[in-house]
Amino acid sequence: MKVSIILAAGEGTRMKSKIPKVLHKVCGKPILEYVIDASIGAQVQKNVVIVGHGGDEVRDYFKGKGLIFENQPIGQGAPYGTGFAVMQGLKHVDDESTVVILCGDTPLIRKETINRLFAYHNEGNYSCTVLTAILDDPTGYGRIIRDEVGNISKIVEDKDATEEERQVREINAGIYCFTGKMLKQGLSKIDDDNAQGEFYLTDAVEILKNEGYNVGAYVIEDPVETHGINNRVQLAFSEKVMRQRINEFHMLNGVTIINPETTYIEDGVIIGRDTIIYPNTYLEGATTIGEDCEIRSNTRIVDSRIGDGVCIESSLIEESSVGDGTKIGPNAHLRPKSNLGKNIKIGNFVEVKNSTLGDNAKAGHLAYIGDAFIGKNTNIGCGVIFANYNGKDKQITKVGDHVFIGSNSNLVAPVNIHDWAYIAAGSTITKDVEEASLSIARAEQVNKLNWVDKKGLR
Ligand code: UD1
Ligand code: CA
Fold this sequence. Notes:
Structural class: alpha/beta
CATH topology of the largest domain: Spore Coat Polysaccharide Biosynthesis Protein SpsA, Chain A
Radius of gyration: 31 Å
Number of helices: 9
Shape: elongated
Distance between the termini: 98 Å
Bound molecules: uridine-diphosphate-N-acetylglucosamine, calcium ion
């Protein structure tokens, strides 16, 4: 049985934040979730997450994901350190288990790497295998110390290292594979006699080695995967790497991204082939975009479903759905629960909220459509306002098929405009309009001839 112990109890002091470190987001997803997903992706059956600082928040976030949580006691005088953290998960480890230990603050780790670590561990018949990386700047990391024949003999923390040991560029990624029995045996002998007064997990490696067990070190191909997050500069670095990975994934799937550097796509967004994404766009949350779309600059789409062949220009779309062939923008805003049919046109400065629009409907300019049902082939003129709020309640407006609403009209809810009705420009409609009728609801025009001369104004 493969078991993971994922360390996520640390305080994350250097983040200077109210939010637990591992819940800070990279490309829209908490740091810790990437680690958990990599572990699940590597077919680890049992995932044990060690929580402490902000533990309740972390548990809450991951509710229903099938994880096991263990609390590390935190506070004045409580023991501390990665070794002590791992001990909290040992009750879920059998002697025969293969245990992978992961850090909750290294989101760039890939499931393929965890699988390679398992394979290396098994093939070498090691009691413990450490994942290592060669870095140009190893500052801050534990260093891998090898013996004369090149085998790993111990790990020295940066703060405990001698000047000579500090020169070593091979570092401990903080990811390990242990056989269950060896992990328990190694941990039973560690102490906190070091520069930080912590129980170091890394000491278990040296202990096993000294007891004559076979200890391995697997050097990772791409060191960026070991990048840990301790502060917000490192958070931004992980974001950058992850953004590039996500964008490359979509490009290799047939999506054109004009400038990946300025295209922000969150993890989990789905995009169809031959869609073109222009610079400075944000695609967030549970968003799906179809094929052959154009998502033009300065657009943000959140938790929305966009059909095929849709063109969106500098607009904000939230929790809405958009049918095939529809055109939106520039500068439109679909607020939550806007459901647009096919081949619709929502133009400049049009705001839609909690409304359904049938196929071929049009609202080209400067309109507010709220709490409405609008039929097919209906035209909403420039400047039309759906007055849905009487200061107390929100009310519904229904507009049928083939309706023409003249410019600058107000539809005061609740009101029904039936199929084929015409509303004259500038009307304020407060009563229902029957099918195929013209409604004019404005003061009649009066022209006073020669008024200017009579007044002597010219
Ligand atoms: C650790 C390693 C170091 C390695 C580095 C890689 C030790 C002693 N050092 O150092 O060799 O190069 O990771 O990133 O293991 N945590 C707990 N409970 C604790 C302490 C830590 O859950 O009591 C968690 C933290 O939340 C974090 C992880 O363990 O997710 C690593 O802890 P951190 O303090 O960041 O260790 P490093 O100093 O980075
Ligand atoms: Ca760290």
